[in-house]
Write a structure and sequence with these properties.
CATH superfamily of the largest domain: SPOUT methyltransferase, trefoil knot domain
Low-confidence stretches: none
Strand content: 15-25%
Number of strands: 10
Order of helices and strands: EHEEEHEHEEHEHHEEHH
Number of domains: 2
Oligomer: single chain
Distance between the termini: 43 Å
Shape: elongated
Strand order of the largest sheet: 2-1-6-5-8
Helix content: 25-40%
Structural class: alpha/beta
Radius of gyration: 22 Å
Bound molecules: adenine
Largest sheet: 5 strands, parallel
């Protein structure tokens, strides 16, 4: 997959794209990252990227020309044969989720435009972006953190990026449930023991315990997720029995 990020703050992505799974993904040629400075696509002396809103009001609006020009300049001749998404990060977009991350992981190219100031000229929304994504119901001062969130969640779903396919399969949200509690050594830390079942070596029992914990945790913290989760009759009984007031590690 090729990911291009258009931003006014390219420096913000320096460490991000050269650490951890990204570095490995790039080295293994599973992902190609390119960061572009929108300011480089202006033609005036002061490299102006924003202007006052027509009709008045607070704040500035990002001008359309540099953004269109940046996208046009990074388009490839073979893009028409590929699955390409041009994403604008904006609080007005559809709400990002693991399902959307999985959907985007199927694309050949993602071009992510980071919005800024009070907004982006509506012609970018209407005539350039093919998707608009919000990472939550709050307003950031810029779309860069949102672009990183999207890039991170999508990249780790690309086959081969994570060490083993297992590690993404058990993630919170991948089965519509929050993830079960995880422990590592030591078995006793301060006064707190690792649940005995995890030390038992009985993989069947461990899998059952984890599933139960995932359901209990989801019922407690994010009960609305259970509406979409696939639960057995017995698990539904567990949710109804335990309701929302369950201690996490019974
Ligand atoms: N830009 C500002 N706020 C945002 C949000 N919540 N999601 C995506 N982009 C944004």
């Amino acid at each position: 997959m090729r990911i291009d990020i258009l931003t006014l703050f390219p420096k913000m992505f320096e460490d991000f794209s050269s650490t951890g799974i990204f570095q490995r993904a790039v080295e293994n040629k599973l992902v190609e990252f390119n960061i572009w400075n929108i300011r480089d696509y202006t033609h005036d002396k002061h490299h102006v990227v924003d202007d006052y809103p027509y009709g008045g009001g607070a704040g500035m609006v990002m001008k359309p020309e540099p953004i269109f020009e940046a996208v046009e300049s990074i388009r490839q001749p073979d893009d028409n044969d590929k699955k390409v998404s041009i994403i604008l990060t904006t609080p007005q977009g559809r709400l990002f989720s693991q399902t959307i991350a999985a959907e985007l992981a199927e694309y050949d190219r993602l071009i992510i435009i980071c919005g800024h100031y009070e907004g982006v000229d509506e012609r970018v929304h209407r005539h350039l972006a093919t998707d608009e994504i919000s990472i939550g119901d709050y307003v950031l001062s810029g779309g860069e953190p949102a672009a990183m969130v999207i890039t991170d969640a999508v990249t780790r779903l690309i086959p081969g990026v994570l060490g083993s396919d297992e590690s993404a399969k058990d993630d919170s949200h991948s089965a519509g449930l929050l993830e079960y509690p995880q422990y590592t050594r030591p078995p006793l830390f301060k006064d707190w023991e690792v649940p005995e079942i995890l030390l038992s070596g009985n993989h069947g029992e461990i899998a059952r315990w984890r599933r139960r914990q995932a359901i209990i945790r989801t019922a407690e913290r994010r009960p609305e997720l259970l509406d979409k989760a696939e639960l057995s009759a017995e698990e539904i009984k567990l949710v109804n029995e335990k309701g929302k007031k369950v201690s996490p590690e019974e």
